[in-house]
Amino acid sequence: MVVVIYSFAGFFGFLAYGNDVQDSITLNLPNDHLGIFVKAVLLFVVYSGFLIQVFPIVAMIWPAIKKKLRNSCGVSTTTKRIVHFAFRYSIVVVVFLLSYAIPRLSDMVPLVGVTAGMLLALVFPSLFHLLIFLPQFECRIGFLFDILLDIVCIVIGMFFVIYGFITNVQHLMR
Fold it and tell me: Which residues are listed as membrane-spanning (predicted)?
């Protein structure tokens, strides 16, 4: 649903502004009442989406921290609660500092896209397929073809990740 909403926003934003569209569609909006309202709604959507995106990170990492706190002698419930909130706030501060350190987000989007996109599209599925089904190896043509296809996808994906990463870093250096 999120992909559909953002796709519609991008499509209709391009229809409205054509080649004059800026890096963020909100930069094209006028500063009248409707434009400010749309920017406020988008701010709320991004803020809510950030909370949803941070939740799994905390849910995965917090149990290990909680276990270490539980093993420590004399850690009270209040201290655990303070550490929990400090952990959540530290994630927000790190993300804020990263966003502040990157003045033009449009320069970073291709870097993240090529690395994460290629890893998620080609490398990880093939690697997981190999790891799961390789122990059940049978010397059949179909199975050998699957292994070969997985290896080719991993090699091509890693080539694109490395080449895209190097190209984007060179672009950022200019």
Answer: 34-62, 82-102, 108-134, 141-166
